Amino acid sequence: MKSGCQQWISIAPNKRVIRNQTALPVASKLPIWLNGLEQVCGGWVSEEKGEAESGPTGHKCESWPAWRVVLTDFVIVVLGVGVAMAAQQAVEKMHDNGRAAEARAGVRQEIARNLANMNLREATETCMSARLDEVQGLIAASAAGRLPQETLWIGHPIEPSPVDGKYKMATESGAASLFDDKEQSAYAELYGHFAEYSQRLQEEARAWADLRTLETHPPSSATLDWQLRSAMQQARMERYYITFLRQLALRQAADLSVSAGEQEKLKMPPVCAPLHTARDEAAKLTAKPGYDLPVP
After folding, report:
1. Residue 34 lies in domain
2. Neighbours of 114 (CB within 10 A)
3. Contact partners, residue 229, CB within 8 Å, separation at least 6
4. Rounded CA separation 68/108 (Å)
5. Which tens digit of pLDDT belongs to each residue from 73-111?
């Protein structure tokens, strides 16, 4: 059997001879760019095309007259889609970078503020240490039934609790997920320390509230003595962890190139007022500007 532009003879099973027929294309799925074309002698020509050149045996033969146009259109479409997708990705990347930068700036500003509050608390450490020693003496005197009947002002530590509004906003909006893994981990760990610091401040405040029972000159008893000694131990332990967490937070913030912000100025911390100051006088000495608060 001869194929191409030559005549071909096929011996069918019924022994009939078929002559002078041109091989037809095998039925198959044609590529989309060949739609509208017909096979002619080894090539494809448009059905709309006029006469084709005759082959050696008189059949019309033609090479691909439209393949360059089809290929050019195909390349243009592919390049156009690629450019459009690249441009869209570039715009999205710029948008994500802007969100990440805004979120990062807010979180870092919040960290600096928290560190400043921690330093503010640390600035009262001398007064706190001295006051705890004084209270320790008062507990011993109370147990012996010799608690001084003078006015007593024990006061309380300041509680500059860390805030986390900016960090929560960044995580809930998904902006924090745009940070790299190392940065996300560093912020999560640091804010974990802030949360524990805040919890320790609350525990310390409760211990000091128990210690301030001495300001009312309660009658001596074994139960009272046990409660006061337990509160003293709790206050000292919380003070230890608060100091440790501050130092840890400062180190981790330094690794992120974040330093403490400007520190607030206090008129006088409550714990720094003299031990035998009257309550009204202590309230005036320790009042916070802009606030009208009752004496605790």
Report:
1. 26-62
2. 28
3. 139
4. 59
5. 777 777 777 777 777 766 666 666 678 899 999 999 999
Give per-residue pLDDT as tens, 17-76. Answer: 444 444 444 444 445 444 444 444 444 444 444 444 444 444 444 555 566 767 777 777
The verdict on residue 36 lying in a domain is yes
Same domain, 49 and 141: no
Tally of structural domains, the chain: 2
With residue 193 as reference, give the H or E element that holds it: helix 181-211
* Residue-wise pLDDT tens digits, 205-222: 999 999 999 999 999 999
With a CB cutoff of 8 Å and minimum separation 6, the contacts of 13 are none
The answer to whether residue 116 sits within a structural domain is: yes
- State the amino acid at position 115 in one-letter form: L
Residues near 236 by beta carbon (within 8 Å), at least 6 away in sequence: 132
Classified as helix, coil or strand, 157 is coil
282, 155 contact by CB (below 8 A): yes
User: What gap in Å lies between CA 286 and CA 214, rounded to an integer?
Assistant: 20
First to last CA, the chain: 111
Q: The whole model's pTM is what?
A: 0.69
